[in-house]
Amino acid sequence: MSGEGNPAYGHRPFTRSKSHFTDRITADGEDGWPVAAGRYRLVVSRACPWASRAVISRRLLGLEDALSMAIADPIQDDRSWRFTLDPDGRDPVLGIRFLSEAYDRRESGHPGGVSVPAIVDVPSGRLVTNDYQRITLDLASEWTALHRPGAPDLYPAALRERIDEVMAEVYQDVNNGVYRAGFATTQEEYAVACAAVFRRLELLTDRLARQRYLVGDTVTEADIRLFTTLVRFDAVYHGHFKCNRWKLTENPVLWAYARDLYQTPGFGDTVDFDHIKRHYYQVHNGINPTRIVPLGPDLSGWLAPHHRERLGGRPFGDGTPPGPVPPAEEVPLPGRP
């Protein structure tokens, strides 16, 4: 293995790349990719917050049998995401060693790097989309014919305008804000980004002190997107990305909200703290050149009572929780509290 990590982080100005492949998989197949059980494979890293959105959505909606999932090694080398967790270092369905092979089959010399989440067309081995902002919305709204009985409505039509507004604020200041702080190359750039992170978190605290979920009285896509940042906050963003005005565990409202979601089936049972910590501390060696992974924080608090049910709300609305995690997709013990 060569070229582990990425020494550029912390030395070059940070700009999040736009998704280059934005085809959509829809019920009507307008882009040439119709929804079909078994045709596509979702490629993720449990370390990546953008990919974790898709992992949570797929599980809440019960799409495990319809959309298979490949889990990449949290440690990348110079060819990016690789399937070294699988026997012989190959994805057993796609037969490839690196996700880049599916990208190259779609377009040689493509710009923008190799990112997850990605959905690959199994028959052709070609990438369909890496549009992390759109994938989960389509899973919720276009894949409905394949949802499990009792699946929640994660993107209800009546609330979409408000959900979109909240998600845009969370993306700018929190989801992407922690990266802008962590990869800043000047003190001023860092200070602006870090201040924006905590300003937005304080506004979200005010909202969540009064209501159990971000929009409406059930879990929506907005909660998924905030959760994937909060669950990583103390483990990596507080120290590694220097977002350290306070810890998540020091904010009673957000800590209880995050625990509530973690303990909701479909959320915490997809989280691998071992993958998260090893990825950030060992891949971003421009920020952490020693590649030492910290021993903490203590994870046991994630299982403590949250008492958020006092605020009302029903996690799944008129639906039901997802069933047990498929055995092949269970998070190994080192990644759990």
Using the CA coordinates, give the radius of gyration.
Answer: 19 Å
> End-to-end span in angstroms?
31 Å
If strands are numbered along the chain, what order do they take across the biggest sheet? Answer: 2-1-3-4
Based on Cα principal axes, name the global outline. globular
Helix content: 25-40%
Q: Whole-number average pLDDT?
A: 95
Largest sheet: 4 strands, mixed
β-strand number: 4
Helical stretch count?
9
Order of helices and strands: EHEHEEHHHHHHH
Strand content: 5-15%
Low-confidence stretches: none
Please identify the structural class as seen in this structure. Answer: mainly alpha
Provide an overview of this structure.
The chain is globular. Helix 4 runs antiparallel to helix 6. It has helices spanning 49-61, 100-106, 135-141, 160-175, 177-182, 187-208, 221-237, 252-262, 273-283; strands at residues 40-44, 68-71, 118-121, 126-129. The protein has a four-stranded mixed sheet with strand order 2-1-3-4, with helices on both faces. The two termini are 31 Å apart. Helix content is 33%, strand content 5%. It has 337 residues and is mainly alpha-helical.
Provide a short characterization of the protein structure:
This protein is 33% helix and 5% strand. By secondary structure, the protein is mainly alpha-helical.
Task: Annotate the secondary structure layout.
Blueprint: E1 40-44, H1 49-61, E2 68-71, H2 100-106, E3 118-121, E4 126-129, H3 135-141, H4 160-175, H5 177-182, H6 187-208, H7 221-237, H8 252-262, H9 273-283
Parallel strand pairs: 1-2
Antiparallel strand pairs: 1-3, 3-4
Helix pairs in contact: 1-3, 1-7, 4-6, 4-7, 7-8
